[in-house]
Design brief:
Strand content: 5-15%
InterPro entries: Niban-like, Niban_1/2/3_dom, PH-like_dom_sf, PH_domain
Helix content: 40-55%
Distance between the termini: 21 Å
Shape: globular
Low-confidence stretches: 584-590, 597-640, 646-752
Organism: Podilymbus podiceps (Pied-billed grebe)
Order of helices and strands: HEEEHEEHEEHHHHHHHHHHHHHHEHHHHE
Family: Belongs to the Niban family.
Radius of gyration: 28 Å
Protein name: NIBL1 protein
Length: 752
């Protein structure tokens, strides 16, 4: 009922905003909008043939309250994919869990997690001395917390591993949060404006932390924001048991409700978008035919609203906004510019190191190897972490309360996405220019000089584009902070009077001109001049290496953008010296991993460690799993030493038997074992998928297995799925389970 009510109101807003967005898109297409031309090239075809990271970590299995060793793979689409062990991954067996991390927070402290859990269910706090809801067997936990969905608990053996995994997980969250495609010039602005208008109708102004993920995830968060407090009031007092059990039950209830809301939301939103798409051709035809009349009608409406609103808005800006613009800008500029400077430094260092290695180790023979690594620099979360973490310094302090900004995370994440894009553009421009030069070079010395010369050219282009991107980011951030504040201030005196302006809009144009949107544009104009002036002054003073607007780089490389239109460069194929191309299957199996796995003798985890081996350090042989007892708290090693001892005994006492268990299917050939490397997602998987598409594994002797072609008929998660989708281990082409169903076997979790 609640989902239907919220989605009904939202879809009405979406339909209204869709017409406005379509008009703006067609108008922009016809009129255009100059602006400085980017100097760096933008990669048209994204890199996909790689694995970002893979390695072992422990996962807490809630079904039996035990810790299990899991092999985690992060493919190019930034889904978290958990396998039983490394061998299961290499054999293409179905994964245990697939996680879309949009909306999650990465916690590295159990105390942080317990604080969030305690606040989620007011009045239910474990008494001191009682065991908490979660006990971690090592000092290095990694917890994925979500306000509505299920939580995921991991731990590793060393602080170095924890740092790497944290950087990887944060990259996954950052990527998945940015789930609304900016390539869509109509649907994306219509959706975000509809969300904003809906929340403003509920007196909720300002930034919103849960505007993350794809459209269905965002709408599910919108529903849960209203539904969860009501559920907590209704269900909270009825929960039974100890405080820990009530907390655990509440998390499960919230997750189950979130899944139901997601399924209902997806169906209703898809129906609304399909209806708008169906009406689009007729609307677009009207816009193109009557463009001049629509513009004239809108300007007439704007002039009337401006005469009514502008005097009040200007007073509000002068008294409550203008004095603080420079302070907000300075708070934004310092960490953002430091982050972009770090991007420049990391790029410079990587290219310089590559150049030195070429001098020491050989010329063109090594170039392919180094350029393959450089092209994937932006996917290296550990190397990029030094850039991203500069934004952690962003503090608006008193300004945050004054302008009712709930959190700075929106601005941090947006700046980090810009940094990532600028790094990739710089790398792609460098490799495109170098690729053009390579055929003309004679020897190692020429190659090194050419690399240095191209590096200097790219850095100049980067400095210019970086300035342009940052200035645009500062203007947008200032508007995001000040406009909601002004709208809230002006609402009591202005909003009630807007209805009288509706009669000024011709009925034929009512789908493309909205009074509410025009009113917001007038309010924006009242503060835009001050914001533009503040950013311009910062550039004139050369603060943080910003360029003046008057400085424009014209045709510095007139043919460069033509180079960017060519076929993507494959350095390994062109310069690795291989006589013939690898088959697609071999190429997939040998996909490069961007981040290397830590090799720590004390912290190495075996392919599979049974929970019994961990939980009973004195046992040399794994025992049969026991049925979980809900009333018994998890019994796990209390420290790192016990786990290490268990792992050592597991390796010594049961290594041969474990290997036999793991290889009871078809035994791979010696050559395939020798060359086995983490495989990338299948080439035929959609590039925008938020989760890795699982495929059936190798056949077991005596078992009937589908042919490779039949394997493609397996249910695969759609691009817009969220949460996690789980395939029971050992299952073949089983149909998807209905939402809300669960499997009782250990470790197999609910399909979403």
């Amino acid at each position: 009922e609640k989902t239907g009510k919220v989605l009904g109101e939202f879809c009405r807003c979406y339909k209204e905003q869709y017409g406005v967005a379509l008009f703006n898109s067609v108008r922009y297409e016809i009129e255009g909008n100059g602006g400085p031309q980017a100097q760096l090239l933008h990669r048209k075809v994204p890199l996909e043939d790689h694995v970002i990271y893979s390695g072992n970590l422990f996962q807490y299995i809630e079904e039996n309250k035990k810790w299990r060793n899991r092999f985690c793979v992060v493919p190019h689409n930034y889904g978290l994919v958990l396998y039983e062990n490394k061998l299961a991954y290499e054999r293409d067996l179905p994964p245990r869990v697939l996680v879309n991390s949009a909306g999650y927070k990465i916690l590295t402290s159990v105390d942080q997690y317990l604080e969030l859990v305690n606040s989620s269910l007011p009045g239910v706090t474990p008494k001191s001395g009682h065991s908490p809801i979660l006990k971690c067997p090592t000092d290095f936990p990694l917890i994925l917390w979500h306000p509505y969905a299920r939580h995921y608990y991991f731990c590793v053996m060393t602080g170095k591993e924890q740092e790497k995994w944290r950087a990887v997980f944060q990259d996954c969250v950052r990527h998945c949060n940015n789930g609304i495609s900016e390539d869509s010039k109509v649907e994306a602005p219509a959706f975000t404006d509809a969300v904003r208008m809906y929340r403003q109708s509920k007196e909720q102004y300002g930034t919103w932390d849960m505007l993350c993920g794809n459209e269905t995830q965002v709408l599910s968060n919108l529903v849960m924001e209203e539904l969860l407090p009501e559920l907590r009031t209704t269900i909270g007092p009825r929960l039974k048991g100890k405080a820990q059990e009530r907390q655990r039950t509440w998390i499960q209830i919230s997750d189950a409700v979130y899944r139901m809301v997601y399924e209902q939301t997806k169906a209703q939103y898809d129906a609304a978008t399909a209806k708008c798409e169906q009406e689009r051709p007729q609307m677009e035809s009207t816009i193109r035919t009557d463009m001049d009349q629509i513009i004239t009608s809108k300007e007439h409406l704007a002039s009337k609203i401006r005469a009514f609103v502008l005097p009040k808005a200007e007073v509000c800006v002068r008294n409550h906004v203008q004095p603080y613009i420079s302070s907000i800008l300075e708070a934004l500029m310092t960490p953002t510019s430091q982050g972009f400077a770090e991007v420049r430094e990391v790029f410079f260092k990587e290219v310089t190191d590559m150049n030195m290695n070429i001098v020491n180790e050989g010329g063109l023979e090594k170039l392919a190897e180094y350029m393959e690594k450089l092209s994937q620099l932006v996917f290296h979360p550990v190397k990029m972490q030094s850039c991203y973490e500069k934004m952690d310094q962003l503090k608006l302090e008193g300004l945050q309360q004054r302008f009712d900004v709930s959190s700075t995370s929106v601005f941090k994440q947006r700046a980090q996405i810009h940094m990532r894009q600028q790094m990739d553009d710089a790398v792609y421009t460098f490799e495109t220019l170098l690729h053009q030069e390579v055929g003309k070079l004679q020897g190692k010395d020429d190659l090194c000089k050419s690399i240095q010369r191209i590096l200097e050219r790219v850095l100049k282009k980067y400095d210019y584009d970086s300035s342009t991107v940052r200035k645009k980011f500062f203007r947008e951030a200032l508007l995001q902070i000040t406009i909601p504040f002004l709208l809230k201030k002006l609402a009591p005196t202005c909003k009630g009077e807007l209805a009288k302006f509706q009669e000024l809009i011709f009925e034929d144009f009512a789908s493309f001109i909205l009074v509410e949107n025009t009113y917001e544009e007038v309010v924006l104009q009242s503060v835009m001049k001050d914001i533009m002036q503040a950013v311009k002054e910062a550039a004139v003073q050369r603060k943080h290496n910003l360029y003046r607007d008057s400085m424009v780089m014209h045709n510095s490389d007139p043919n460069l953008h033509l180079l960017g239109e060519g076929v993507p460069i494959d350095w390994s194929e062109e310069y690795s010296g291989q006589p013939e191309a690898e088959p697609a299957a071999d190429k997939r199996r040998r996909a490069k991993q961007v981040v290397s796995v830590i090799q720590d003798d004390e912290g190495v985890l075996p392919y599979e460690v049974g929970a019994e081996g961990l939980l009973q350090p004195g046992s040399l042989k794994p025992q049969e799993p026991e049925e979980p007892d809900p009333g018994v708290p998890p019994s796990s090693p209390d420290g790192v030493e016990e786990i290490r001892e268990a792992l050592a005994k597991e390796n010594l006492g049961d290594g041969v038997e474990a290997e036999q268990r793991l290889t009871n299917a078809d035994v791979p050939s010696a050559s395939s074992v020798q060359h086995a490397a983490p495989a990338s997602p299948r080439a035929d998987a959609p590039s925008e998928a938020k989760v890795l598409h699982a495929t059936p594994g190798s056949p077991t002797p005596g078992a009937e297995t589908p042919s490779p072609s039949a394997g493609t008929a397996c249910h695969q998660p759609g691009d817009k799925e969220t949460g996690e989708e789980v395939v029971p281990p050992g299952s073949e082409c089983s149909p998807p389970q209905p939402a809300g169903t669960t499997e009782s076997s250990e470790g197999v979790q609910t399909e979403f």
